[in-house]
Amino acid sequence: VQLQASGGGLVQAGDSLRLSCAATTRTFSRYIVGWFRQVPGKEREFVASISEKGGITNYADSVKGRFTISRDNAKNTVYLQMNSLKPEDTAVYLCAARTWSNREFDYWGQGTLVTVSS
């Protein structure tokens, strides 16, 4: 599975952005997909995940109520809608995928940079 994240950019605090994670696989609906973020010098942080059919979502406490993860399996794409962005949301955002049987995300895309200015 190859993953391509896009949609990052420079925004002001309070603005919104939508990230996309496009997958190149015919079996996309078999994968749980997650978004993570990383700031240089800090550990990678879980942001959100979505189940294979989209019925189950999980969020980090820091983004609950502001971010929404969704997916369109017909387009092999997962989205992360980010609202009310804060400067502390500044990071490289990465998407990853795993099958239900794997506990770890083993497919990773390259990141997309989100910068939120105050």
Spans of 5+ residues with little confidence (pLDDT < 50)? none
Tell me what portion of residues adopts beta-strand conformation. over 45%
The computed structural class is: mainly beta
What is the average of the pLDDT values? Answer: 96
Overall 3D form: globular
What is the chain-wise order of helices and strands?
EEEEEEEEEEE
What's the helix count?
A: 0
Beta strand count: 11
Structural key phrases:
53% strand, mainly beta, 118 residues, four-stranded antiparallel sheet, seven-stranded mixed sheet
Structure described in brief:
The protein is mainly β. The protein has strands at 2-6, 9-12, 17-24, 31-38, 45-50, 57-59, 67-72, 77-82, 91-99, 107-108, 112-117. Strands 2, 4, 5, 6, 9, 10 and 11 form a seven-stranded mixed sheet that branches. A four-stranded antiparallel sheet has the order 1-3-8-7, with no helix packed on it.
